[in-house]
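Hi V.,

Quick status before I head out on leave. The structure for the redesign project is tokenized and pasted below; the design run finished overnight.
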């Protein structure tokens, strides 16, 4: 009996507009309390936006405020710094 292959969940990067596997993207969440944070688990409650795990893409997202526009909130610089550090360590 053949084994079933699992469907790979795809998400769209808000910067590059590429559809990529969820594991290759970083998620930023804005919750109802107004907090904005990097969601390492990918399962936190709130509105999420995905960014490609790339230093260049994260810098472009910060320069053009793409995460803030997508989430309709101000994204603190600390969130971008955390994303950038994570991308440097996990490329």
């Amino acid at each position: 009996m053949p084994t079933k292959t699992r469907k790979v969940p795809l998400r769209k990067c808000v910067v590059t507009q590429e559809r990529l596997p969820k594991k290759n993207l970083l998620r930023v969440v804005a919750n109802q309390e107004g907090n904005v944070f990097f969601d390492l688990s990918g399962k936190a409650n709130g509105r999420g936006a995905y960014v490609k795990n790339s230093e260049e893409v994260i810098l472009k997202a910060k320069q053009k405020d793409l995460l803030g526009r997508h989430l309709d909130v101000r994204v603190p610089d600390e969130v971008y710094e955390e994303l950038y550090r994570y991308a440097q360590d996990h490329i």
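Above is the designed sequence. The CA atoms of residues 53 and 91 lie 7 Å apart.

G. will cover questions while I'm gone.

Best,
W.
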